C-alpha cells in the first residue's frame, strides 16, 4: 500500500514531499545511496540520471545511516542559478511492517526562490514523480 502526502508550503520558504514506500528502511536507504541504484530511478518521469553529468553542486553536511541525509544544493549556471540554491534534508522513517516514510524537505533562501524553482523546474510535481519512481524501483528490483 502506498500513501502519498504532499505539504506544499509548511513555511513560505519550504517544499516538503513525502511518500510511504512498502519496503524496509534498509532497502530504501540502499536505493537512495548506491549510485548503481540511484541512476535507475532518480528524477521525474522521463528523466535520466548520470551521477557525473550535472553542473549542480551538492555538499553533504550530514549522513546518518539509515535515517537522514542533509546537504546544501548549489544551482547550475545561467539565469536563475542563484535561485536554485537550497538546503535539503532527506529522512527515512521506519514505520514497521516493512514500510518506510521518505520525506524530501528543501529550504530556500526566500519565498521568491522557492516559487522560482516550483515554476521553472516543476519542483513539486518532479519531487512527487521522483518518489513514485523510487517506490516502483524498490518494489520491482530490491524487494524479493
Unreliable residue stretches: 1-9
Name of the top-level CATH class: Alpha Beta
The fraction of residues in strands falls at: 25-35%
CATH topology group: Alpha-D-Glucose-1,6-Bisphosphate, Chain A, domain 4
Cα distance spanning the termini: 16 Å
Number of extended strands: 6
Give a quick account of the main beta sheet: strands, pairing sense, barrel closure: 6 strands, antiparallel
CATH architecture: 2-Layer Sandwich
Please state the structural category. alpha+beta
Helix content estimate: 25-40%
Task: Characterise the protein shown here.
It is a single chain. With 144 residues, this protein is α+β, with helices and mostly antiparallel strands. The chain has one domain: Alpha-D-Glucose-1,6-Bisphosphate, Chain A, domain 4, CATH 3.30.530. It contains 4 helices and 6 strands. The chain has a 6-stranded antiparallel sheet with strand order 1-2-6-5-4-3, with helices on one face. β5 and β6 form a beta hairpin. α3 (111-121) packs across α4 (123-142). It is globular and about 45 Å long. The protein starts with a strand and ends with a helix.
Give the gist of this structure.
Helix content is 33%, strand content 33%. The chain has helices spanning 25-33, 35-41, 111-121, 123-142, and strands at 3-7, 14-21, 57-64, 68-74, 86-96, 99-107.
Amino acid at each position: 500500500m502506498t500513501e502519498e502526502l504532499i505539504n506544499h508550503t509548511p513555511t513560505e520558504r519550504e517544499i516538503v514531499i513525502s511518500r510511504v514506500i512498502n519496503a524496509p528502511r534498509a532497502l530504501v536507504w540502499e536505493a537512495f545511496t548506491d549510485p548503481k541504484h540511484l541512476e535507475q530511478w532518480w528524477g521525474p518521469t522521463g528523466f535520466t540520471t548520470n551521477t557525473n553529468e550535472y553542473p549542480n553542486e551538492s555538499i553533504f553536511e550530514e549522513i546518518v545511516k539509515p535515517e537522514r541525509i542533509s546537504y546544501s544544493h548549489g544551482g547550475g549556471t545561467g539565469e536563475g542559478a542563484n535561485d536554485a540554491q537550497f538546503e535539503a534534508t532527506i529522512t527515512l522513517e521506519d514505520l514497521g511492517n516493512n514500510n518506510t516514510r521518505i520525506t524530501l524537505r528543501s529550504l530556500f533562501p526566500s519565498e521568491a526562490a522557492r516559487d522560482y524553482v516550483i515554476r521553472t523546474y516543476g519542483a513539486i510535481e518532479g519531487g512527487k514523480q521522483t518518489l513514485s519512481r523510487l517506490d516502483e524501483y524498490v518494489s520491482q528490483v530490491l524487494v524479493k
